[in-house]
C-alpha cells in the first residue's frame, strides 16, 4: 500500500538480547532496561528522532518484546502518534513460507522493505535502540546530501585500548571511508562506528536484495553490507560526532553511564530544555525524605520514600529505602523496597523486588554487583 511520500524513514533495531547485562535482561529486551531513574534506554533514540523532526519510525523487536511494546504504545510520549507516519512496532512475522526470526541486522531491514517502500523515502536512517546519546539526525542528513553519499556512518573517536570492541573506519581528508574493520584484534584506527547509518534507499534496497540471495552472507550490516559498499563503487562517508555517546552493552558500562548523570557538568545534561528527553512516566507522589533520611549527590525520583542514607546513586521511581540502610554508588531500579539495615555499594538493584533487612550487597568499581543474582554471589 502506497502512502504519501516521506523524505526519510527511521528504523530502530531493538531486538537485542543483551546477554552481557546478565540478570538485568532476563525478562526484558535491552532497549527497555530502565535508565537514569525515570527513562528506558530506547527513550534516548526516540527522543532524538522527535527532536530531529523525524516522524516516521519503525521499531524492529524480537527478544522479550512485551515490556518494550507496552512502553512504546502508540508513541504519544515522543509525539509519534501520527495518522501519517508515526511509530510502528515491527516484530518477526509469519507469511506463506512460515515464521522466522530476523537472522541479522540487515535481514531485519530486508524483511520490512514493504513498510519502507510504503513511504517511498529518499533516505533510510538505521539506528540502535540501546545507546545513550543526544544527536540531531538532520545535521547528519545534511552532510549525507552535501557529499552525495550512498551511505553515511556516524563515527566517534574511542580510546585505542577499547577500539577492538567496535567496527572501525579509516577515512581520507574528505571523510570518504576507504577501509572498514568489524571488531578487529589489531585495530588500524580508533574511529568507531556508532551504529548510526543513513542510506540512500534505492542503493540500500538493492544491496539488501543481493545480500538476501547470497548463500555466504550473515545478513549483518557490519560484517556484510558495509564492507561490500566500502570495497565497491558506492560513496561511503563518515560523519564525525563529538557529543556524549555510550554503548551500554555491559553491566559496567550501564552503571558508568548512569553515574555520569550525577556530575554537575555532565555532557548528557537531562536539564537541557532545548533538547528534551521524553518517556512514559507513571503518576507517582512527590519524593519524601524523612527526618531519618539523608541524600548526597544523587538522583531521587518521584514516589520514593527515603529513610536511610543515599550517596552518589540513581534511585528510580517508587523506591523505598528503610532506616539505617546505606545505598551508595548504586542504581536502584523502579518499584523496589529496600528494608531496614541493608548495606549496598557499587551495585545495580533490579526492579520489583524486596531487599530483606540485614542484606549486604557489595561490588567494586571494576565489577558491579547485580542483585538479586542468579548465583547469589552479590550477597554477603
Automatic annotation (TrEMBL):
Domain Glucose-1-phosphate adenylyltransferase/Bifunctional protein GlmU-like C-terminal hexapeptide: 293-361
Keywords: ATP-binding, Carbohydrate metabolism, Glycogen biosynthesis, Glycogen metabolism, Nucleotide-binding, Nucleotidyltransferase, Transferase
CDD domains: ADP_Glucose_PP (cd02508), LbH_G1P_AT_C (cd04651)
Marked site: Could play a key role in the communication between the regulatory and the substrate sites: 62, 101
A Pfam family of this chain: Hexapep_GlmU
Domain of life: Bacteria
Nucleotidyl transferase domain mapped to chain residues: 10-261
Binding site for alpha-D-glucose 1-phosphate: 102, 167, 182-183, 193
Cross-referenced InterPro entries: ADP-Glc_PPase, ADP_Glu_pyroP_CS, GlgC_bac, GlmU/GlgC-like_hexapep, NTP_transferase_dom, Nucleotide-diphossugar_trans, Trimer_LpxA-like_sf
Keyword ATP-binding: yes
Gene Ontology MF term list: ATP binding; glucose-1-phosphate adenylyltransferase activity
This enzyme's EC code(s): 2.7.7.27
Catalysed transformations (reactions): alpha-D-glucose 1-phosphate + ATP + H(+) = ADP-alpha-D-glucose + diphosphate
Annotated metabolic or biological route of this protein: Glycan biosynthesis; glycogen biosynthesis
GO biological process: glycogen biosynthetic process
PROSITE patterns, per the entry: ADP_GLC_PYROPHOSPH_3
NCBIfam families noted in UniProt: glgC, PRK05293.1
PANTHER family for the chain: GLUCOSE-1-PHOSPHATE ADENYLYLTRANSFERASE, GLUCOSE-1-PHOSPHATE ADENYLYLTRANSFERASE-RELATED
Protein family membership: Belongs to the bacterial/plant glucose-1-phosphate adenylyltransferase family.
Described function: Involved in the biosynthesis of ADP-glucose, a building block required for the elongation reactions to produce glycogen. Catalyzes the reaction between ATP and alpha-D-glucose 1-phosphate (G1P) to produce pyrophosphate and ADP-Glc.
HAMAP family recorded: GlgC
Description of how the protein assembles with itself and partners: Homotetramer.
Name used for this protein in its record: Glucose-1-phosphate adenylyltransferase
Native organism: Acidaminobacter hydrogenoformans DSM 2784
